Amino acid sequence: MSVHKDITKHSTRQNQLVQKFMKLDEERERAIDEAVKLCQAGEAFTTDRINEATREINTLARQGVVPQRKTVTVEMVEEYAARLNLNKQ
Q1: Global pTM?
Q2: One Pfam family from the UniProt entry (predicted)?
Protein backbone atom coordinates (compact mmCIF):
# COMPACT_ATOMS: atom_id res chain seq x y z
CA MET A 1 0.00 0.00 0.00
CA SER A 2 2.91 2.35 0.71
CA VAL A 3 4.20 1.99 -2.87
CA HIS A 4 0.77 2.93 -4.20
CA LYS A 5 0.71 6.06 -2.04
CA ASP A 6 4.21 7.00 -3.18
CA ILE A 7 3.28 6.56 -6.83
CA THR A 8 0.11 8.60 -6.34
CA LYS A 9 2.07 11.34 -4.57
CA HIS A 10 4.67 11.39 -7.36
CA SER A 11 2.00 11.52 -10.09
CA THR A 12 0.16 14.29 -8.29
CA ARG A 13 3.37 16.30 -7.98
CA GLN A 14 4.16 15.87 -11.69
CA ASN A 15 0.62 16.88 -12.62
CA GLN A 16 0.94 20.03 -10.50
CA LEU A 17 4.20 20.91 -12.28
CA VAL A 18 2.62 20.40 -15.69
CA GLN A 19 -0.41 22.51 -14.75
CA LYS A 20 1.84 25.32 -13.49
CA PHE A 21 3.92 25.07 -16.68
CA MET A 22 0.80 25.37 -18.85
CA LYS A 23 -0.34 28.46 -16.96
CA LEU A 24 3.09 30.09 -17.20
CA ASP A 25 3.45 29.18 -20.88
CA GLU A 26 0.08 30.80 -21.66
CA GLU A 27 1.15 33.90 -19.71
CA ARG A 28 4.43 33.96 -21.65
CA GLU A 29 2.62 33.68 -25.00
CA ARG A 30 0.26 36.54 -24.08
CA ALA A 31 3.26 38.69 -23.13
CA ILE A 32 4.95 37.85 -26.44
CA ASP A 33 1.79 38.77 -28.37
CA GLU A 34 1.54 42.07 -26.51
CA ALA A 35 5.20 42.93 -27.15
CA VAL A 36 4.84 42.10 -30.85
CA LYS A 37 1.72 44.26 -31.19
CA LEU A 38 3.44 47.19 -29.46
CA CYS A 39 6.48 46.75 -31.70
CA GLN A 40 4.35 46.66 -34.84
CA ALA A 41 2.65 49.86 -33.72
CA GLY A 42 6.03 51.53 -33.23
CA GLU A 43 5.49 51.82 -29.48
CA ALA A 44 7.97 51.13 -26.69
CA PHE A 45 7.98 47.59 -25.26
CA THR A 46 10.10 45.37 -23.04
CA THR A 47 10.61 41.64 -22.73
CA ASP A 48 10.51 41.75 -18.92
CA ARG A 49 7.15 39.95 -18.51
CA ILE A 50 8.11 37.38 -21.14
CA ASN A 51 11.39 36.57 -19.47
CA GLU A 52 9.95 36.50 -15.95
CA ALA A 53 7.60 33.72 -17.11
CA THR A 54 10.55 32.11 -18.93
CA ARG A 55 12.62 32.08 -15.72
CA GLU A 56 9.78 30.45 -13.80
CA ILE A 57 9.26 27.87 -16.55
CA ASN A 58 12.97 27.04 -16.63
CA THR A 59 12.99 26.61 -12.85
CA LEU A 60 10.22 24.04 -13.26
CA ALA A 61 12.06 22.43 -16.16
CA ARG A 62 15.05 21.67 -13.93
CA GLN A 63 12.80 19.18 -12.17
CA GLY A 64 12.70 17.19 -15.39
CA VAL A 65 9.00 17.18 -16.16
CA VAL A 66 8.44 20.15 -18.48
CA PRO A 67 10.46 21.66 -21.36
CA GLN A 68 12.63 24.74 -21.08
CA ARG A 69 11.94 27.96 -22.96
CA LYS A 70 14.45 30.39 -24.45
CA THR A 71 14.96 33.88 -23.10
CA VAL A 72 13.49 36.43 -25.52
CA THR A 73 15.42 39.54 -26.57
CA VAL A 74 14.09 42.83 -27.89
CA GLU A 75 15.79 42.00 -31.20
CA MET A 76 13.91 38.71 -31.42
CA VAL A 77 10.58 40.52 -31.00
CA GLU A 78 11.56 43.13 -33.59
CA GLU A 79 12.58 40.47 -36.13
CA TYR A 80 9.36 38.52 -35.61
CA ALA A 81 7.22 41.67 -35.89
CA ALA A 82 9.03 42.61 -39.11
CA ARG A 83 8.38 39.13 -40.60
CA LEU A 84 4.70 39.41 -39.70
CA ASN A 85 4.53 42.84 -41.36
CA LEU A 86 6.14 41.44 -44.53
CA ASN A 87 3.61 38.61 -44.66
CA LYS A 88 0.74 41.12 -44.44
CA GLN A 89 1.89 42.93 -47.57
Answers
A1: 0.86
A2: DUF2533
